[in-house]
Design goal:
By secondary structure, this protein is an alpha+beta fold. It has 16 helices and 16 strands.
Length: 466
C-alpha cells in the first residue's frame, strides 16, 4: 500500500514550516482506495508570497481544522503504507515535525517520484512536477494546491509502476541500505557513490550547472552524506537544489582548506556564508611603561600602530605569544598573558627571571624582549610546508615566499629539490588573501614540525622536517 501525499505550507523553513493544506491518496498499487484533503489552520500568518503562489490566505484557513484535529486521519491513511511524494523529503519532514510537536512519532518508508522518474524516465531536462507532467501528458489541475498536485503525482506514480524495469527499481529504492530516500531528489545515486573517502573539496551544483556550495572534508563521501541528513533549513533547501557534485582531491586537510577558500572567492556560491565576512585580525605589539619595562601585548590589528606579528584568530595569537614568552624566558605578566596580578603565577610558564618581583634588572629583561622582537622579525622568511599528497607516491606542498602565500602543489616523493625555483615549477599560483593567510598561519602555529625554512631565496636547507 502507498500513501501519495502533497502539502502546502507557510514556507518558513522545515522547522518553522506550518501546513496550510494537505492531500493524501491511499493507493493499493492498482488504484486509489481512499482519499483525504483538507485546508489546515497553521495558527500563524501566511506570508503574502505564499498566498500569491497557492491562493491560500489567512481568511481561507480561518475556520479550517488545526493539525491536531486531523492528526488521527493522517496516521490512519498512512499507517502500514509507503509514503510517496514528489521531492519526498520535504513533505515527509514537515509532516513529521508537525506531528512531533504533538508528541507523535511518525516513521514511514519513503519513495520519491523525482528520483524514480530520473531512473525510469531518463533524459528529460527538468523533473519538476509541472514540466514532467507536461512531458508525459499527465493532466495537472489546480497547480500549487495540495489535491491538484497530489492527484498529478498519483497519475505519475501509476506510470512509474508500469514502466519497464519498475519492479527492480522499486525494490532497490526500498532497500534500507540503498540511501535512495536520503539523497537529494535531483542527484543521481551513482554521483554520490563515486565520491571517494579521501580529503578534498566538493562542489554542489544545481540543475543549471551553477556551483551553489563549496565545502572541504577529510572524508568526502562521509561529509557530503552529512549534508543530506542535516535538518537545518539552509541544508534542506540546498540539498533540494543539488543535481550534481564535483570534487577535487587534496591529500591533506590544509590543502583542502586553501582550495576551499580559493573556490569560494572565485565562485561566490549562494549557500556559503563562511569567508564572505571580513576576518578579525589580531597583532602582537611592544610598548614601554613608565618604569622603562618593555611589554609585549596583543590587540585587534586595527588598534595596533606597529604590529610585530599578525594573526587571524585570538587563540593563535595568544598561543604564539605564550611560546615566545617561554622560549625567551619572559614574564607572563609583562606579556599580558596574566592581568591584574602583582607578580606572575602562570600555570605552565615558569621561566620568568623575576622582573615582576624585582629579582631581575630592567636592562636584562628588556634585552630579552628585544631578542624576542628580533625573533618575530625573522619570521618574514621563505617557508615550505610539506603534507600528505593525494597518493602514497607524492607530497602536497604549500609555498610561503617573503611572508606571502604563493600557492600549493603536488610533487613526487622521489623528486630531488635543491632550490626554491625547483619548487615553484610545481606550485599552482594562488591569491594571497586574508583567509589564506589565516589558514596558513594557523597551521604553522600548530604544526612547526611540518615547516621547511629557506635561508635565502635560492637555497633549500633540510631543517625542521617531520
Amino acid at each position: 500500500m502507498y500513501s501519495i501525499v502533497d502539502i502546502e505550507t507557510t514556507g518558513n523553513g522545515i522547522l518553522g514550516n506550518k501546513i496550510t493544506e494537505i492531500a493524501i491518496f491511499k493507493h493499493d498499487g492498482h488504484r486509489v482506495v481512499d482519499e483525504f484533503t483538507s485546508l489546515v489552520d497553521p495558527e500563524c500568518e501566511i506570508p503574502y508570497f505564499i498566498t500569491g503562489l497557492t491562493g491560500i490566505d489567512n481568511h481561507l484557513v480561518r475556520n479550517a481544522p488545526k493539525i491536531h484535529e486531523i492528526a488521527d486521519r493522517i496516521l490512519e491513511l498512512t499507517q502500514d503504507t509507503i509514503f510517496v511524494a514528489h521531492s519526498v523529503n520535504f513533505d515527509y519532514k514537515v509532516i513529521k515535525n508537525e506531528l512531533k510537536i504533538l508528541g507523535i512519532d511518525f516513521t514511514r518508508k519513503k519513495l520519491c517520484t523525482v528520483r524514480l522518474s530520473r531512473r525510469l524516465f531518463p533524459g528529460y531536462r527538468s523533473y519538476s512536477l509541472g514540466k514532467l507532467c507536461s512531458a508525459l501528458d499527465i493532466p495537472l489541475m489546480d497547480r500549487h494546491r495540495a489535491r491538484g498536485d497530489a492527484h498529478a503525482t498519483v497519475l505519475l506514480f501509476q506510470k512509474l509502476l508500469l514502466a519497464q524495469g519498475a519492479d527492480a527499481i522499486f525494490k532497490s529504492f526500498l532497500n534500507a541500505r540503498s540511501q535512495e530516500a536520503t539523497l537529494p531528489p535531483g542527484l543521481p545515486k551513482e554521483v554520490f557513490t563515486s565520491l571517494p573517502m579521501q580529503p578534498g573539496i566538493y562542489y554542489f551544483k544545481n540543475d543549471k550547472g551553477q556551483i551553489i556550495y563549496v565545502g572541504k572534508a577529510k572524508n568526502l563521501k562521509k561529509r557530503v552524506l552529512g549534508h543530506f541528513y542535516d535538518k537545518a533549513d539552509k541544508e534542506v533547501q540546498m540539498c533540494r537544489e543539488t543535481s550534481a557534485i564535483d570534487f577535487e582531491l587534496s591529500g591533506s586537510e590544509l590543502v583542502a582548506l586553501l582550495m576551499e577558500s580559493a573556490a569560494i572567492k572565485q565562485h561566490y556560491p549562494l549557500y556559503n556564508r563562511a569567508q564572505k565576512k571580513s576576518t578579525q585580525q589580531y597583532a602582537i605589539f611592544c610598548y614601554e611603561d613608565r618604569n622603562g619595562i618593555l611589554h609585549l601585548a596583543y590587540n585587534r590589528l586595527k588598534l595596533v600602530p606597529r604590529p610585530l606579528a599578525t594573526f587571524y584568530n585570538l587563540a593563535d595569537c595568544r598561543s604564539y605569544l605564550q611560546r615566545i614568552c617561554m622560549s625567551e624566558e619572559l614574564c607572563p605578566k609583562y606579556c599580558h598573558l596574566q592581568e591584574n596580578v602583582s607578580s606572575c603565577s602562570h600555570y605552565s610558564i615558569t621561566s620568568c627571571g623575576g622582573i615582576c618581583t624585582g629579582k631581575e634588572s630592567i636592562e636584562a629583561y628588556n634585552k630579552k624582549v628585544r631578542s624576542a622582537i628580533a625573533h618575530m622579525g625573522r619570521s618574514a622568511e621563505n617557508l615550505l610546508i610539506k603534507e600528505r599528497g593525494r597518493t602514497l607516491e607524492e607530497d602536497a606542498i604549500v609555498l610561503i615566499r617573503e611572508n606571502r602565500y604563493c600557492g600549493y602543489g603536488f610533487i613526487e616523493k622521489t623528486m630531488e629539490i635543491k632550490t626554491l625555483e625547483d619548487i615553484e615549477a610545481y606550485i599552482l599560483p594562488q591569491k594571497d588573501t586574508v583567509d589564506a593567510q589565516r589558514i596558513v598561519q594557523s597551521f604553522i602555529q600548530r604544526n612547526p614540525e611540518s615547516i621547511l625554512m629557506f635561508d635565502t631565496v635560492h637555497e633549500l636547507p633540510v631543517s625542521n622536517e617531520r
